[in-house]
Specification:
single chain, 7-stranded mixed β-sheet, 7 helices, elongated, alpha+beta
Length: 219
């Protein structure tokens, strides 16, 4: 039987989405061949081994369960073991990150797992980082000859008139998105200049860079 670390939660605005995904994954794992070992990461970044009831995941109060034990994952390649407070060590075979957004889906956790030589279920470090970054993903696709929508990227603090000028060049309607976020968080469809400022504010709540992108007809 394979022992699988299943990571969920995370320091991300998509924390709640991860709880829903992890509940689905853990509920449907084949217990005849796999032994899940859930590891939750709180919004604040605490790591907790969670052998408690799965029903507490969607509700979001899993970390209040008395079964939670603080844990760490050492990057030492010599042994695949989750270290629990109190000195216990739980050995495992592979890891499955069920995290969404920054600090989990973006290559950060994948990099730690690859550094430790842990078999990883899902995308690796490079593909995770590239696919989370809309700007770099589009540029890479364009270099490969894949048609991509026109866009412009701006950092927080860019003068409003500069962003407004780029929006006029792209034309309305357009989309405003955080460069590094998923699950449509912070994404707005802007029909005219009056909607640009609130859309930028919504996107910057999730990342320090925003993407203005032309709307593609037919979608």
């Amino acid at each position: 039987m394979k022992r699988i670390l299943v990571f969920f939660g995370g320091c991300s605005s998509e924390y709640g989405v991860s709880l829903q995904s992890a509940h689905a994954v853990l509920t449907h794992m084949n217990r005849e061949t796999l032994r899940p070992m859930p590891v939750g990461i709180t919004r604040e970044g605490r790591w907790l081994y969670y052998p408690g009831p799965l029903s507490r995941l969607p509700a979001g109060d899993w970390q209040e369960d008395p079964s939670c034990v603080p844990c760490v994952l050492p990057p030492d390649r010599g042994r695949r073991a989750l270290l629990l407070s109190g000195g216990r060590a739980l050995e495992f075979d592979a890891a499955f990150p069920v995290l969404h957004g920054k600090n989990g889906e973006d290559g950060t956790l994948q990099g730690l797992l690859e550094l430790a030589g842990i078999p990883l279920i899902g995308c690796g470090t490079l593909s995770s980082a590239l696919c989370m970054d809309k700007d770099r993903a589009h540029k890479l696709a364009a270099r490969a000859g894949v048609p991509s929508p026109r866009g412009a990227v701006f950092s927080a603090g860019t003068p409003e008139e500069e962003v407004a000028a780029a929006a006029e060049r792209l034309g309305y309607p357009l989309f405003v998105k955080p460069v590094r976020a998923g699950s449509s968080f912070g994404v707005s469809r802007v029909e005219g200049p009056e909607g640009l400022a609130p859309a930028l504010e919504a996107a910057l709540a999730h990342d320090s860079r925003v993407l203005l992108e032309e709307a593609v007809t037919g979608f």
